[in-house]
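input
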Amino acid sequence: MGFFSLSIRFPHLAKKKGIMTDNIKQPSHYIANEIEPIDFIIANKLNFCEGNVVKYISRWRRKNGVEDLKKAKQYIDFLIEKEVAKKDNVWQNIFESKMENVVLL
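output
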């Protein structure tokens, strides 16, 4: 592995040698991971909320600290709310379909 390859994986080394990383295509807070979050998100076909959880969890130590953890938590809470609402809606639909067969006297 040449220095350029190392500079992509270890941007802090690149800065010491004067080589800049691309903050758009390869931001340092993501490329320090073994797998870049976008690669993981696409490979696993994650939805928007799931992808944001991966994004914020994978960068929190190198970018925005606790703020990124709070953002990840917000997306997790949103996912939980949607799943609970789906289950509640399923039970409501089952109840309503059973009530259609009830004859009131």
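quick obs: Residues 66-99 form the longest helix (34 residues).
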